[in-house]
């Protein structure tokens, strides 16, 4: 099994979700990450199965948030990215 968050664009979704000042819906995530809408949905479903994200419905929008596990993973990803950029 290939873990999608080791790829640059799917990883950017998790990094974007760390910004809790904004309510992230699927369409805003796909435009900011550069992924297509269907691919973003597929990646988010996979993250949901791994327990990294959760969905909350707000009217017609699905709001995406990191779970506690997702926050720990993204913190570790930030550390890895920082080390690679040194």
Task: Supply database-style keywords.
alpha+beta; 86 residues; 57% helix; Arc Repressor Mutant, subunit A; three-stranded antiparallel sheet; globular
Description of the structure:
The protein has 86 residues and is of the alpha+beta class. The protein has a single domain (4-85), classed as Arc Repressor Mutant, subunit A (Orthogonal Bundle). Helix content is 57%, strand content 16%. The chain contains 4 helices and 3 strands. The protein has helices spanning 8-17, 26-33, 37-49, 68-85, and strands spanning 24-25, 53-58, 61-66. A hairpin with a 2-residue loop joins strand 2 (53-58) and strand 3 (61-66). Helix 1 (8-17) crosses helix 2 and helix 2 crosses helix 3 (37-49). The model has no long low-confidence stretch (mean pLDDT 87).
Shape verdict = globular
The percent of residues in helical segments reads 55-70%
H/I helix tally: 4
Biggest sheet layout: 3 strands, antiparallel
CATH level 1 name: Mainly Alpha
Number of strands: 3
Q: How many structural domains in the coordinates? A: 1
CATH topology: Arc Repressor Mutant, subunit A
């Amino acid at each position: 099994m290939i873990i999608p968050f080791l790829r640059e664009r799917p990883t950017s979704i998790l990094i974007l979700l760390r910004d809790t000042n904004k309510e992230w819906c699927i369409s805003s995530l796909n435009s900011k990450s550069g992924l297509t809408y269907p691919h973003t949905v597929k990646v988010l479903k996979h993250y949901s199965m791994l327990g990294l994200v959760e969905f909350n419905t707000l009217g017609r929008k699905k709001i995406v948030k990191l779970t506690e596990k997702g926050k720990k993973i993204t913190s570790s990803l930030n550390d890895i990215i920082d080390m690679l950029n040194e």
